[in-house]
Design goal:
By secondary structure, the chain is α/β, with parallel strands linked by helices. The chain is built from 17 helices and 22 strands. A hairpin with a 2-residue loop joins strand 17 and strand 18 (about 365).
Length: about 500
């Protein structure tokens, strides 16, 4: 009997004459968690799309259970028992849990109508088998990210999936939700399901995966049992060099206060939030997902209007009612969700970068294309955006390069205050180190940075000071010397003992 449930041999794929995968091989055993690791742009997404039938390889072959197969589309792959859960979830927001599980495959009566009784019974049975407790009639839009992922997993197993692909499944989860997800993954593994797990959080992979395959620049590097590798060994395989300093923080003496927030409140969201941000300082804003950190950032930037409190910018009290006004005051905001709020995926790099400054590139209402192109090109080069040209569509870029475009866009406004909301979410370790170096450089040049992050190593490694939020309120404040994981976790949760391995 063939030990490989899935085997890829010599897979190559090109787009527009550019080879993105070169003779990549990969094997997956029944009942294993196999980590697929590589920098953004290494070819992971393309390989997953070939496995799921979205793309077909130019060269190479796919074997399932030892037999060659060809997937002409995603339906072929699903029918073969392969399911994928992507970072950007794909539930129908106005359908309930049970309807989403069986979307497009609802059981029908002899008369051709949806058999609702059977649908809810089967959905309930499926969730019970996974150990997941959800209200079957709850609308998807009201579910947390973790609950939506559980519905996606249930949908995958409604087609009797033997292979489950999970792409950055923990990037938006709280620590407790990560623990719940890992318990389910281990349970599925014990029952014989093969899982391909993609994550940039190396600590998670070291704790969860049985084997790891590393890709670099579209080529296969190596496959190892996870117990035989180290964190720095994985980094070296991914980037082709040793990164000794993931948090290259320069020592900077902060200057005068440039942003002062006093008792800022938005009813139902956050309450009496106060802090100061100084020139050249990186102020870390820590807390669990849902603590209200993003809402505070959006209120400062004029996206959400506070109901009480004061904001001072460079010593002058202001009432910011729109992002345009915030930009004019020298603020810039890189949002958490780059796909939804940071980019227009269907537009090319140039248009995305120039968007906040269109009036600057116009004369008497006419856009001066040459000036716009020149500025966008310089900004893209400064951020080392890897693309075919500045006319490539944003949606075609890797996650790390999309984030670089968002940063290039806001840095082109020449901000004095920069708000970064989860700046390295879903980004590979090499790009993460580069962005950390950029943040440190910007702070050294005098830009004040408010950094929201759910990754404690990032908070501890990059912050001059840390403030912590819990349930909409500030619950802790620490200098760089005082801040520890235990203190931050305690302020964020009041319960250190229940924290999982993702620290």
């Amino acid at each position: 009997m063939n030990e490989h449930l899935l085997e890829l041999r010599g897979i190559s794929k090109s787009f527009s004459g550019v080879e993105v995968l070169h003779e990549v091989s990969f094997t997956l055993h029944p009942g294993e968690v196999h980590a697929l690791l590589g920098e953004n742009g290494a070819g992971k997404s393309t390989l997953v799309k070939i496995i799921t039938g979205v793309h077909q390889p130019d060269k190479g072959e796919i074997l399932l259970g030892g037999e060659p197969v060809h997937f002409s589309d995603a339906r072929d792959s699903r029918q073969a028992g392969i399911a994928a859960i992507y970072q950007e979830l794909s539930l129908f927001p106005d359908l309930d849990v049970a309807e989403n599980i069986f979307a497009g495959r609802q059981p029908v009566t002899l008369g051709g109508r949806v058999d609702w009784r059977k649908l809810y019974a089967e959905a309930g049975k499926l969730l019970d088998s996974l150990g997941v407790k959800l209200d079957l009639k709850q609308k998807a839009r009201t579910l947390s990210i973790a609950q939506q992922q559980m519905v996606e997993i249930a949908r995958a197993f409604s087609i009797n999936a033997q292979i489950l692909i999970m792409d950055e499944p923990t990037s938006s989860l709280t620590l407790h939700e990560v623990d719940d997800l890992f318990r389910l993954v281990r349970r599925l593994r014990a029952e014989g399901t093969a899982i391909i797990f993609i994550s940039h959080r190396l600590e998670e992979l070291l704790a969860l995966a049985d084997r790891v395959t590393v890709l670099r620049d579209g080529s296969y590097v190596a496959t190892h049992p996870m117990k035989e590798v180290t964190r720095f060994g994985l980094i070296r395989m991914m980037v082709g060099r040793t990164i000794t300093d993931l948090f290259p923080k320069q020592d900077v003496t902060p200057g005068e206060v440039v942003l002062k927030v006093e008792n800022l409140t938005r009813a139902g969201s956050f309450y009496k939030v106060s802090f100061e941000l100084r020139r050249g300082e990186i102020l870390g804003l820590a807390g669990l997902v849902g603590a209200g950190r993003t809402n505070v950032a959006r209120a400062i930037f004029g996206v959400e209007l506070p109901t009480a409190g004061r904001i001072q910018v460079e010593g002058r009290e202001v009432r910011i009612t729109s992002p345009q006004q915030a930009i004019e005051l020298g603020l810039a905001y890189v949002p958490e969700d780059r796909q939804l709020h940071g980019l227009i995926p269907a537009m090319h790099i140039t248009s995305n970068i120039s968007l906040p400054m269109l009036a600057h590139y116009a004369r008497m209402g006419w856009l001066r294309d040459t000036r716009e192109r020149k500025s966008a090109y310089e900004a893209a080069c400064q951020m080392d955006v890897r693309a075919n040209s500045i006319w490539q569509l944003a949606r075609e870029l890797s996650g790390g390069n999309q984030q670089k475009v968002v940063l290039a866009k806001w840095l082109s406004t020449q901000p004095r205050i920069l708000i970064l909301d989860e700046p390295t979410r879903g980004i590979d370790v090499g790009t993460k180190a580069a962005l950390h170096a950029l943040m440190s450089k910007l702070a050294a040049e005098g830009i004040a940075i408010l950094m929201i992050s759910s990754e404690l190593p990032e908070i501890l490694g990059m912050s001059d000071r840390v403030i912590v939020m819990r349930e909409g309120r500030v619950t802790g404040a620490f200098s760089r010397a005082e801040a520890t994981q235990e203190k931050i976790i305690s302020a964020a949760t009041q319960d250190v003992a229940t924290i999982g391995i993702t620290l």
